[in-house]
Amino acid sequence: MNLLYGIALTLVFYLPSSLLWAVAEGAAIHSPPAQTATCVTKGEWRVPGAAGVLTEAQVLTQASASRVVLLGEHHDNQAHHDWQLRMLQALHKRQPALVMGLEMLPKVVQPKIDRFLRGDTTLEIFLEEVEWSRYWSFDAAYYTPLLNYARDQKIPVVALNVTREKVDAAVAQGWASAPPGMTPPAQATRPYIRHLVRSFQRHKLPGAELALAVEGPAFQRFVQKQLLWDRAMAERVYAQLTSPQHAPLVVAFIGSGHLMYGYGVPHQLASLGVDEVMSIIPWDRHLACSSLERGFADVVYGAE
Predict the structure, then answer these.
(1) Quick one: three-class SS letters along 68-129?
(2) pLDDT at residue number 205
(3) 10-residue averages of pLDDT along the chain (304 residues)
């Protein structure tokens, strides 16, 4: 039995069928509504599950005192990217030695990122060299303001991800095919499994077929891949904190699905002993107001 298959067994197969059915039914009930959710108004900062609002200065003070700030996004939402740039600029003023992390690119292209940051290549050449469209399906224009700001301000940028080929190989062939030096992911919690079931439903299957599917190999692979991506990004952040340079603050730009409720990257960071992590998720029309509960994020921001 390879290691990842064993992880899948402990994560999925120990759940009784009655719970799997309940999760599947709950997935349909809690699907986000299509209409705009107005529980967080534009420009507002909220702590989920708490009354009242925060000021931006309060949020920035807390964020700049953290070791890691995880800024979420829906990848194709321009308002989220505009907000992320503003947050990077504000945090950089408070902590000039910060390091910036990107989910969008894999570690293998790090030398090409460094060339761009040194000014050895133009933005156009950089995007060709890192094969942006191969590794990330969303328009580079969403991210070029961040990249240009980092280059102009001489902020180190770290690729947080691993290639899909490496993830697929590790899932199909076992841990020997995982990226060199990577450690096994911390086990997913039961709530994360429920969260992944709902995500699996949205991506793969409608209705009653889901309850049977989560006991099959497709869902096992789905869980394994999510854990690998979460772990890879957490380890790259951890490496910046423990490098000889000891980055005082890592600001990472990661899809909100890897941050919600602390299930993904925050959970893996905690297993690596990294504390003082702050997750900030921008609110938008994709999210149901019922999600605005304690633990969803440290802070949410009304981006639109």
Answers:
(1) EEEECCCCCCHHHHHHHHHHHHHHHHHCCCCEEEEEEEEHHHHHHHHHHHHCCCCHHHHHHH
(2) 53
(3) 41 35 34 54 94 95 98 96 98 98 97 98 97 96 98 98 93 86 92 86 58 68 93 98 95 96 97 97 87 95 92
Tokens, residue 112: 């090409």
The CA R_g of the chain, rounded to the nearest whole Å, is 19
What are the phi and psi torsion angles at 248 (to 5°)? -75, -20
Vertex 28: Cα angle to 24 and 32 (nearest 5): 130
- Give the C-alpha separation, 256 to 242, whole Å: 25
β-strands 157-161, 250-253 pairing = unpaired
Q: Please give the domain boundaries of the chain with CATH numbers for all domains.
A: 3-302 (3.40.50.11550)
Q: Which residues pair with 106 in a beta bridge?
A: 161
Instruction: Give the per-residue pLDDT at 214.
Output: 61
Per the CB < 8 A criterion, the answer to whether 158 and 240 are in contact is: yes
Question: Degrees (nearest 5) of the Cα angle 170, 171, 174?
Answer: 55
Which are the contacts of 101, defined by CB distance < 8 A and separation ≥ 6?
157, 158, 159, 160, 233, 236, 237, 240, 250, 251, 252, 253, 254
Q: How far apart are CA 21 and CA 194, in angstroms?
A: 11
Q: Do you know the residue count of the chain?
A: 304
Per-residue pLDDT, 18: 33
Compute the distance between CA of residue 158 and CA of residue 106 in angstroms, rounded to an integer.
9
SS3 241: helix
pTM for the model: 0.86
What was the pLDDT predicted at 206? 54
**CA-based angle 180:183:185, to the nearest 5?**
130
pLDDT tens column, 54-94: 999 999 999 999 999 999 999 999 999 999 999 999 999 99
